[in-house]
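Consider the tokenized backbone below.
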């Protein structure tokens, strides 16, 4: 039998794709009364090499916890989904110290703009600020 080649994990992510919510975000009053359907995709940059070896949930991030956190923010009405995206991202960074980056997309499936489209939304890509990558002072 040939020896296994040595490997090195260069990047890894935990993600949830296509989370569906009916929420009450929007600038127009009707959006805040009737609501709209939303899709949320999230990808968290996190090392999963320990979980790859151990097969233990405590060595990674629990998908159900991520969903619960996002759901709590999606049920809180806001005028702008940009604001919702900011809240979700901040909560993810606050909750999981091991997360180094968040990629988040929120799509409003039926935006009230008179267009025939699959949706409109926001997408953000954020990294945790550390002293090494800080642009402050």
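A designed sequence for it:
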């Amino acid at each position: 039998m040939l020896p296994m080649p040595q490997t090195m994990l260069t990047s890894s992510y935990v993600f949830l794709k296509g989370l569906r919510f009916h929420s009450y975000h929007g600038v127009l009053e009707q959006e805040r009364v009737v609501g709209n359907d939303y899709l949320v995709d999230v990808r968290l940059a996190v090392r999963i090499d320990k979980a790859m070896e151990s097969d233990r949930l405590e060595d990674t991030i629990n998908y159900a916890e991520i969903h619960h956190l996002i759901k709590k923010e999606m049920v809180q009405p806001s005028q702008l989904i940009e604001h919702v995206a900011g809240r979700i991202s901040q909560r993810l960074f606050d909750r999981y110290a091991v997360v180094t980056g968040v990629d988040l997309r929120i799509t409003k499936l039926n935006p009230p703009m008179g267009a025939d489209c699959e949706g409109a939304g926001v997408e953000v890509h954020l990294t945790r600020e550390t002293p090494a990558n800080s642009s402050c002072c």
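The radius of gyration is 18 Å.
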